[in-house]
Amino acid sequence: MARNLHVVMLPWSAFGHIIPFFHLSVSLARNGVHVTFVSTPRNIERLPKFPPDVSNSRLDLVKLPLPQLEGNPLPEGAEASVDIPFEKIQYQKVAFDGLKHPLEQLIISESPDWIIIDFVSHWMVEIARGIPIAYFCVFSAASNVFLGPPESLSNDGVKRLRPSSESLTVQPPWVDFPSSLALHGHESAHFYAGFYGDNASGISDACRVAKVLQSCDLVAFRSCMEYEGKYLKLYEKLIHKKVIPVGLLPPDRPEGGTSRSESFQWLDGQEPKSVVFVGFGSECKLTKEQVHEIAHGLELSGLHFLWALRRPIWAAHEDEVLPDGFVERTCSRGIVCMGWVPQMEILAHPSIGASLFHAGWGSVIEILQFGHCLVILPLIIDQPLNARMLVERGLAIEVERRGDGSFTGNEISTALRLAMVSDEGRELRANARDAAKMFGNHELHQQYARKFVEYLKNNVRKKTLD
């Protein structure tokens, strides 16, 4: 008797990874796949609710406790990178690697047809028992092209092709078409140390990616040919493995009418496309200077804004976060929401016209499906590379920075006004509206998901499916 395809999903414990894995899991479940989604207990508890058309029978959530480390270097109860200071994330990787044995027992018990992993789980091939492995990359294809083939990611390849942070400031030699794929000087040193450098886990992130690429059977991207076709094709040539775009997995559009908080009542009173949504998520830890310069820029711009701002660790209380008098001076045209906000519902509101954010790939997808202008201030990991691509395509304005990466309110204000109200920004605004036709095309991205499922079904090694 034939049965449904069964996959095990294992994301890295950062919500910028967990949420795309969850969205892919939902997409697979909607296409008849039985999904076992594995993470730690607190991370599972913080997942979004299942959509009404996805049941527990198709999508199982499995909690595996995060192993405790000797000396307890991680904060109590910390299971995701958002819970952990940046310098201690290396210890989180040590703990995550400790999931190898319980995962092996789970794989023996579940006997899935495919295992879909993130970049951290380089050891999966050792416990997969011949089950095919897919590497689902939550970053853009362009960002991965920038990193290069497996041989450029470890040992002699790094010494030869990426000898220093300066090598990251020019277009990679393997990109054979004009591209702005490169880091700025102030970005490259931090990226080089974090990606190629040693850490407490004993293996660099670059080596993890290399091992995953060498051991996997295919690489899946949260992308589509319409946006990244030339990069997807080039990456397949670079790694000599099957590369499959699974679509952009845009989150379901909110139904509307469910959130009537004070912030939505305020939005209801604003003109269409007149408000800037400002949000830097949970992974980017803004400094006090950065928060104050963003505030200064919003004030200088004269534009209406809604700012979703989490209390930073450097502020003991919420009233210590913003510059003195900022709220009072801007209350007639702006609102600051401390803590979590329903971002998708806010982005869907007709008064929103632009977003000032970090250029994270998931946020790019969320915002562009509504056709909003992008004003970008990239801070970490892949964000600078996404920023270069968006600017190259005429979809974003990047805030100008000094050589050391700092910026002032003047640069924030200039970028915001250029995107929102200036004549020079007309083409940008038109491009954003056009992009929404592709980024927000749910049927297009569902087609990608269906093709991905067909490939998985047709390439099961252990079992035969009807």
TrEMBL record:
<keyword id="KW-0328">Glycosyltransferase</keyword>
<comment type="similarity">
    <text>Belongs to the UDP-glycosyltransferase family.</text>
</comment>
<protein>
    <submittedName>
        <fullName>UDP-rhamnose:rhamnosyltransferase 1</fullName>
    </submittedName>
</protein>
<dbReference type="InterPro" id="IPR002213">
    <property type="entry name" value="UDP_glucos_trans"/>
</dbReference>
<dbReference type="GO" id="GO:0035251">
    <property type="term" value="F:UDP-glucosyltransferase activity"/>
</dbReference>
<dbReference type="Pfam" id="PF00201">
    <property type="entry name" value="UDPGT"/>
</dbReference>
<keyword id="KW-0808">Transferase</keyword>
<dbReference type="InterPro" id="IPR050481">
    <property type="entry name" value="UDP-glycosyltransf_plant"/>
</dbReference>
